[in-house]
UniProtKB/TrEMBL annotation:
It comes from Parasphingorhabdus litoris. This is DMT family transporter. Residues 157-287 form the EamA domain. The chain crosses the membrane at residues 50-67, 79-98, 130-150, 156-175, 187-204, 216-237, 244-264, 270-288. The keyword Transmembrane helix applies. It comes from the Bacteria. The lineage of its organism: Bacteria, Pseudomonadati, Pseudomonadota, Alphaproteobacteria, Sphingomonadales. Pfam families: EamA.
Length: 293
């Protein structure tokens, strides 16, 4: 009877982890859609979007967690790396979406994040299996083909900046693997990144018109798809392997692509489908024997 109860609890835990992971991946795709929608319609500039996104997320999480934890929501020395990584990610993310479609940006961001996570894992002594190496190579090759020069290639500068955002996201995700209290860690990271937004104040477009829609999209991105989304991400990270964390994020481009076509009227090229096919094939190989990675 006890064994049956343990089996039931284990199954319930796996279902909860899967649900949290699905919600988190949808939030990640939502960030791409919200950011691109705001910039494509010229309702706000990239720097203002980033500042509002990070500061609104910081305020919401500080209020939410401060009631329970008091002043401990303030950044600490051990939150320096994830706070800087979050700031670099958000800045690069918004700037890249000046020129990239939502689906294209996500297709660049998350493979770069995966490679970053895997490289950090290797430096820490966590090595992929041989077949996972093949998957990483295939996913990387798909990303290179996607970015290669050509008539349908995405803007190179925007693509490279989004790749930088992916690298920063990998560092942020790695920091979350050791978070004992995910919600509190996320709040501290956001408060730290929010303070770093002072560096963006000179870059804000004071001469341009910031429309209410742009502000609203930035706030939703900061409080819901980023703030709450990252809490669920930090909550699920300790439950899964490094390879699962890295590979699962590669489903986000597909979600963002669907949303981009349905909500933003974006079109998908043959290059996108070829690159996606290679990247997703790489996912399958990377997730092989995922429990041991």
């Amino acid at each position: 009877m006890a064994a049956a109860d343990q089996s039931s609890d284990h199954m319930g835990g796996r279902l909860l982890t899967a649900l949290l992971l699905i919600l988190t991946l949808c939030a990640f795709a939502g960030n791409s859609l919200l950011n691109r929608a705001a910039l494509a319609e010229n309702t706000i500039d990239w720097a203002s979007f980033t500042v509002i996104r990070l500061v609104s997320g910081a305020i919401m999480l500080a209020l939410l967690l401060g009631i329970q934890h008091g002043r401990s929501v303030l950044p600490r020395r051990d939150t320096l790396v994830p706070a800087i990584a979050l700031f670099v990610y958000a800045v690069s993310f918004s700037f890249a979406y000046i020129s990239l479609d939502a689906a294209i940006g996500a297709l660049i961001l998350f493979p770069a994040g995966q490679l970053s996570l895997q490289m950090i894992g290797i430096f820490r002594g966590i090595y992929p299996t041989a077949i996972q190496w093949i998957g990483l190579f295939l996913a990387t090759a798909g990303l290179v083909i996607f970015l290669a020069p050509g008539d349908t290639a995405p803007p190179l500068i925007g693509g490279l900046i989004m790749a930088l955002a992916g690298i920063a996201w990998g560092f942020y995700s790695w920091a979350g693997k050791g978070a004992a209290r995910p919600a509190l860690a996320t709040a501290r990271n956001f408060v730290g990144a929010g303070l770093l937004c002072a560096l963006l104040i000179p870059l804000m477009d004071y001469g341009g018109q910031i429309e209410p829609k742009g502000v609203y999209l930035a706030i939703v991105s900061g409080t819901i798809t980023s703030g709450l989304g990252y809490i669920t991400w930090y909550a699920v990270l300790p439950r899964i392997s490094v390879s699962t964390a890295a590979a699962s994020q590669l489903s986000v481009p597909a979600i963002a692509a669907l949303g981009g076509v349905m909500l933003l009227g974006e079109t998908l090229t043959t290059r996108f489908f070829i690159g996606s096919a290679m990247i997703f094939a790489g996912i399958g190989l990377t997730m092989f024997k995922i429990g041991r990675a």
